[in-house]
């Protein structure tokens, strides 16, 4: 049975123990009363009574009404410093003990005598300590003579020090575990733990040392009773095989018992360090994690030479175990907190930590002649590295960039990873010198752009940076961040790889953009869009065989708005998806309406955005629109750009085959301006290539454009594809294209984009080709 179990058992028997004391007290009181006056067998009775009580280890005594000892057993006599009962008889507690202790005892006994009420099972600290903290359970009853008059008290006291120690230990353990659960500071926990052990082990002083992160040194954790001078000497102790008891215990991962500091070889050469403090023994125990990794040491110092006894060893093991629990809990909390406030890839603070601290940083320079410069930066074309080399390579690059930024700023500055390839840099408390601030930020941009070795190749990544300064460009963190973000996007508009400082003009444009975005959302809800159609003509027959559907926004106040004004914003916000769905449905409905009006069937060509094309089950959605409008699939052509297809080549080809299976025609728009390879082109299930207007507009004056255009036509012919040139405006361009073998044309030479009514009139005025 363990010592703690025995303590619990003792505690459970407390009531019965009290009852036994009461019964013994009553019996003793009767026996003592019977001693007065003397009777014929008094001598015999006195002898047996004396023999009985002297064999009891508890204190048993009787006092008269003045507190003078009348009788006592040997335990009482000896512990009060006497050899014979007669030396004690007649003396009071005031003769034996300090007045403050004697007064407490006397007051209790007077109450028993005056009231006639016994006092049972009271717990009190022992006056005689025997060198350790002792507790007694005491009962006192009135001493009456034969006539029933109270003439004194009878007292019985039992030593319950072990049980009290167990109670205090259990209470202390519960309190310590509660501190761990509440997340109390580690230093507070350590102090409470050491104090508990010191209370339970008289004459002992404790110390907790923590192993440094690199596992080389012991650092001060708590030593509430040790001299600060000694603590300073021990702090930073390097662990090793002969590095004092604590350093050695941490090195070996085993308990080290030094019974005599002055004689033990572990203290050789440094015993003089502890000698002024009176230490003679030191017992050091490693503190372990659950995985048996050394976290620190728990050491006890004694003023007397010797090793710990079994009870002390149990307390030491308990203390080291609790210390390990607390350290691991704190480290787990620290890890969780770090993960919550730092980026997992770069280790930089994240936006949550930045937002929590930035207000205080700005407040610290309020009213001073200083700035805080907030830079919002985005790595240029980072997605290409991720897509081509993989995310692992991208993470290596991010770590390298983060390290360069940290190295380029001061300790008082902050570098934050917002997410993806976006970062924030806050230069806090810089001089109010624009050129100096911009110079520092340009140095950071230069450092970022240095080559990085990735998978055996040297790569460079630039950044676009926007800057806003406190207090000129904002007085709160959110204002600064929003304005720096605007400036960063302006840097991207200027071709990336540059720095832009926020201006009021940027804010005005951003406000205008926000208004346009809201108006665009309302336009979708209010059905404010219309379609114009530009005819496409076959050069061989001279007949109109198709029309490209072109979107226009009929704004209630601003009138007709060109797609160049709102399509980029729609792409950026994702509104292009519902708008594109509307265009597809409206174009198919109009083509079907022309057919029902008796016009020759013609193909309607619809532009597809990248966001649309990436939508899940997009081919099925196209089929649903055709079914809804009643238009046959062969009268619908979808125009895809090279850049759209190459974003996800495998996925794009799969979707294109799904559309081909439906019967829809596919064309590559703006051919020659993208970056598709010829090997990829031959895999596309397309029927037409559309030559971009940028190659056509300078024909015939630019021989390079003529060569490129002729080359595209020749390539298409060899691949079995038809070719249509857009942006055709002059007779000379038509002649060149016809001579080069171009199949079809589209442009102002034939007709500008027309409303559906005007386009119908155009068709009715000429013979349209059948399809």
Automatic annotation (TrEMBL):
Gene3D superfamilies, sorted: 3.30.450.40, 3.30.70.270, EAL domain, PAS domain
Record field: catalytic activity: 3',3'-c-di-GMP + H2O = 5'-phosphoguanylyl(3'->5')guanosine + H(+)
Domain PAS: 45-116
Domain EAL: 513-767
Residue ranges of every copy of the PAC domain listed in the record: 120-172
Source domain of life: Bacteria
InterPro entries listed in its UniProt record: Biofilm_reg_signaling (IPR052155), Diguanyl_cyclase/Pdiesterase (IPR012226), EAL_dom (IPR001633), EAL_sf (IPR035919), GAF (IPR003018), GAF-like_dom_sf (IPR029016), GGDEF_dom (IPR000160), Nucleotide_cyclase (IPR029787)
Any one Gene Ontology BP term: cellular response to nitric oxide
Pfam families registered for this protein in UniProt: EAL, GAF_2, GGDEF, PAS_4
GGDEF domain mapped to chain residues: 370-504
GO MF annotation terms: cyclic-guanylate-specific phosphodiesterase activity
Name of this chain's protein: Diguanylate cyclase/phosphodiesterase (GGDEF & EAL domains) with PAS/PAC sensor(S)
Organism phylogeny: Bacteria, Pseudomonadati, Pseudomonadota, Alphaproteobacteria, Hyphomicrobiales
